[in-house]
């Protein structure tokens, strides 16, 4: 839809390829590189930034050209988000060192409005839409089209419809945000970005919470923007996605640029990216383990759960499930299959209504009416939603770690500060949590390090059964490996571990057994050694009435095999 996005510049250079596969030969590289530097739309030179004592960026050089998808990758805490906040004026000129050149001129942004005025639009990882407002209201909240000083509603609706069509959404402009899934909300954020004059789009982990179909749709959009001359900066821990769309990859480590890969000139090697990111060879993505599986530790029979708001809807349908001592059991399924609902209902009935069924822990039947009872019995649940449910962000690392085990550090109902400090510091070292000290506020930690705090909290309760819901979402490859090692250690210590994950390679890499859930029921089960991505998808497909378009995206799920 030409003309809808004002200010789009079509690149001067004809693109040699659109999908990253049709790469020019090596002889072309030199001239391509020359052209690259000629068309750089953005250059960040020698950027450094520190927060009281933490050097987040050191002398970073980073440039993006028009019509380029530039991926920015690096470990948790490497400085990716900080660099983008410098670029977009969230951190104003004067609060960092170095120079930003955009369109050939040095820029000193005072705030985000200054960068937006030039078409630099950032979409932060935490979506910022207003739930009880409509799509149209959200898109044009800050800049409604008006006629003679009055909001022109017809124009708002017309433009919203056009923008939604551009991002591939069929919803009406009147739809409330709260009625949309996270994936569609992400697309609304992009439509909102396009309603402004966008020349450079920054996406900070846009697909972390999207399902496969929505991620694929989003990446398609990026490729369409590329053809329109919009530059994009994509931050992602999903290297298979990066490999699919990026023209150039910059790797940050400890606040420095350590590698740059021109994907048009050389084949993308995930191993090289990972090595640059973590500064060591990661020969195996998954640690070795020899499983010693014992008696069942948790057994669930005829578990049935109804929806809390629509009590006529049975969400979990009389399922049986078990995990043995020393066993790692995976639960696979598409989004909405009921996996989180199953886990939360088990964990002290923290989700659902009219819950029935039997639970046995180490052979004894138990009733878990609330979360406290579940923790006391020896169950732990690491939520997929660490920001909302897993952490008290305004509290420090120490308090978050001891939160679920206060009795261990408060012998006479008064917290022993020294005991608390000691135990928190132990976990910090053991889990290699990157923070200035355990008194640092958790909101200041990068995503991966926040996840390690949540894990520490539950490890401290010394559970018999640990249920992990999407434990590695938004986590870099190195930290993922560390989390897999912790899972192995727990299993070796005779605990039962349940892992809910949307990343199939992860389930295939770490589980002794994989159960497949669909529409509130278990529809397949495979021993880890026999499971494949294809078998799991087939189990879902056979049982999914609404499979249709999701099948295609699902078949591509996960990317790299272990
Ligand atoms: N407001 C802040 N106060 C103090 N330290 C901060 C603040 N924001 C970021 N940091 C620190 O700066 C470093 C870089 O953080 P940043 O958020 O840029 O990492 P990231 O590469 O985006 O990581 P992730 O992949 O986990 O999102 C980290 O050590 C982080 O703890
Ligand atoms: Mg970040």
Task: Give structural notes.
Helix 5 (153-166) crosses helix 6. Strand 1 (40-51) and strand 2 form a beta hairpin. The protein folds into 4 domains: 27-119 and 199-278, P-loop containing nucleotide triphosphate hydrolases (Rossmann fold), CATH 3.40.50.300; 129-196, no CATH class; 296-378 and 463-552, 3-Layer(aba) Sandwich (Rossmann fold); 394-462, no CATH class. It contains 20 helices and 22 strands. The strands form 5 sheets. The chain has a 6-stranded mixed sheet, sandwiched between helices. Strands 18-19-20-15-21-22 form a 6-stranded mixed sheet, with helices on both faces. Strands 2-1-4-5 form a 4-stranded antiparallel sheet. The protein is an alpha/beta fold. The protein is globular and about 70 Å long. The structure holds adenosine-5'-triphosphate and magnesium ion. Magnesium ion binds at residues 80-81, 204, 446-447.
């Amino acid at each position: 839809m030409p003309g809808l996005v004002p200010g789009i510049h079509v690149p001067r250079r004809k693109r040699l390829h659109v999908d990253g596969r049709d790469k020019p030969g090596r002889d072309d590289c030199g001239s391509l590189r020359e052209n690259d530097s000629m068309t750089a739309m953005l250059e960040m030179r020698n950027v450094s930034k520190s927060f009281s004592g933490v050097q987040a960026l050191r002398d970073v050089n980073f440039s993006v050209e028009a019509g380029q998808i530039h991926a920015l990758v690096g470990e948790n805490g490497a400085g990716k988000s900080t660099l983008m906040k410098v670029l977009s004026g969230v951190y104003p000129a004067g609060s960092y060192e170095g120079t930003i050149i955009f369109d050939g001129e040095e820029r000193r942004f005072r705030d985000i409005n200054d960068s937006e005025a030039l078409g630099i639009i950032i979409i932060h990882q935490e979506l910022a839409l207003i739930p009880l407002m409509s799509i149209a209201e959200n898109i044009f909240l800050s800049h409604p089209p008006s006629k003679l000083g009055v909001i022109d509603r017809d124009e708002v609706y017309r433009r919203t419809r056009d923008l939604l069509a551009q991002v591939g959404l069929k919803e009406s402009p009147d739809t409330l945000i709260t009625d949309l899934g996270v994936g569609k909300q992400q697309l609304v954020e992009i439509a909102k970005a396009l309603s402004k004059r966008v020349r450079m789009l920054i996406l900070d982990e846009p697909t972390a919470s999207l399902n496969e179909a929505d991620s694929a749709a989003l990446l398609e959009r990026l490729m369409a923007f590329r053809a329109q001359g919009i530059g994009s900066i994509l931050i992602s821990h999903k290297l298979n996605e990066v490999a699919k769309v990026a023209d150039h990859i910059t790797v940050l480590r400890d606040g420095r640029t350590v590698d740059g890969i021109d994907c048009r000139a050389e084949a993308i090697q995930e191993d090289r990216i990972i090595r640059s990111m973590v500064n060591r060879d990661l020969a195996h993505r998954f640690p070795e383990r020899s499983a010693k599986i014992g008696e069942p530790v948790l057994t669930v029979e005829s578990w049935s759960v109804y929806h809390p708001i629509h009590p006529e809807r049975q969400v979990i349908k009389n399922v049986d499930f078990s995990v043995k001592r020393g066993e790692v059991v995976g639960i696979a399924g598409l989004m909405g299959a009921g996996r989180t609902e199953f886990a939360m209902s088990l964990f002290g009935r923290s989700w659902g209504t009219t819950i029935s069924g039997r639970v046995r822990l180490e052979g004894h039947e138990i009733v878990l009416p609330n979360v406290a009872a579940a923790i006391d019995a020896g169950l732990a649940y690491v939520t997929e939603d660490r920001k909302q449910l897993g952490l008290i962000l305004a509290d420090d690392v120490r308090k978050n770690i001891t939160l679920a085990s206060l009795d261990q550090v408060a012998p006479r109902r008064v917290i022993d500060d020294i005991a608390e400090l000691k135990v928190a510091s132990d976990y910090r070292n053991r889990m290699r949590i990157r923070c200035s000290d355990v008194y640092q506020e958790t909101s200041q930690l990068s995503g991966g390090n926040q996840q390690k705090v949540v894990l520490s909290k539950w490890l401290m309760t010394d559970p018999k059964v640990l249920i992990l819901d999407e434990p590695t979402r938004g986590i870099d490859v190195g930290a993922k490996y560390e989390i897999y090692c912790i899972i192995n250690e727990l299993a070796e210590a005779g605990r039962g571990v349940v892992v809910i994950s949307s990343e199939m390679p992860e389930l295939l890499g770490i589980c002794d057994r994989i159960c497949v859930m669909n529409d509130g029921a278990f529809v397949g089960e495979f021993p880890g050694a026999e499971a494949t991505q294809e078998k799991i998808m087939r189990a879902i497909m056979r049982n999914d009435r609404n499979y249709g378009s999701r099948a295609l995206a699902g078949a591509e799920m996960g990317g790299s095999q272990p």
